[in-house]
Amino acid sequence: MEEKYFIDGPLVSILIPCYNHEKYLSDCFKSLLAQTYINIEVLITDDCSKDGSVKIIEEWMDRLRARFVKVQFIKNDNNLGVVKSVNNMINLSRGGYIKTLASDDMLFPEAIRALVSFLENEVEFGLVYSNYVLCDENEKYKVENLEKKSAQRSSTLSGSLSQALYEQDFIIAPTVLVRKKVYSEVGLHDETLLMEDWEFWIRASFSFKIGYLDYTTAAYRVVSNSMSRFSNDASGMKRLRLMIENEFKILDKFKDNPIIRSKIGIRRCCDQGISLAIDFEEDELVSYIKGYLKRNQGRLGFKMELKYILYKLRIWRLIKLLR
User: Fold this and answer.
1) Looking at residue 120, what DSSP letter applies?
2) pTM above 0.90, yes or no
3) Cα–Cα distances in Å, from 275 out to 266, 269, 271, 288, 297?
4) H or E segment to which residue 320 belongs
5) Which residues touch 234 (CB under 8 Å, ≥6 apart)?
6) What is the pLDDT of residues 94-117, one digit of tens each?
């Protein structure tokens, strides 16, 4: 693909939902101000933070407004949750491209320019994802430090990705840029879900190709209270159960879609001696399930663990017996 960069290209709307992120906001905003792409509007929503987030956002408003085409700060009267806050910002946005950025994540300086360049050149793609680096809760925005980190590639798949995405969520949200028309055609994020990004990727993939850009665009921050990290205490178990139940909802939602292929047949047994119905070529999935059981044995109870395995293997007939 021939490179073509846009300085005064299409308007990009960057949406930043915030809740209790006073520690990270300044680094997020610094990464925005460092963008080499010019035509950007920024929408920020504070979802009734209980810390000093609002004050920090207000302190940054003059600098952000001096740099970008438009900056809008929305303070929710009630805690709406991140998904509804993002959907509200999508409806308010004016850009032809949409980028959602968590207020604890950061962008590399060329991020928007590279992502826009990809979609401007590859018109058949509805959205693009890219590489990222991982950082912890103490990481500060310093480009030279972020560039020293190893680039993470969750996948390099590109094209019609419905089946691949149904099997695994490999797209990292802060690396993504979406055409606004994708939301117009397939709808906004599902506000009943915690894993709304994954559900949206699958839904979008039925109507649009999804592109992969081999370029590092974002620093993805992993913090101690992240929903994706689970401890052995009661709160950790609650988060784990919520995530699994949300995964069940997503798998149920799309299991009868004709684009999604069913997987049936008997292959082998797992560590606990449960017969699993799977295809012959599913060795990688078997390894995943066995690893999951080893890590989580006894944490959720036998029924939940068995149900999770059956969902992973898409064995709908047996799942019904557990309900």
Assistant:
1) H
2) no
3) 8, 5, 10, 15, 17
4) helix 316-322
5) none
6) 999 999 999 999 999 999 999 999
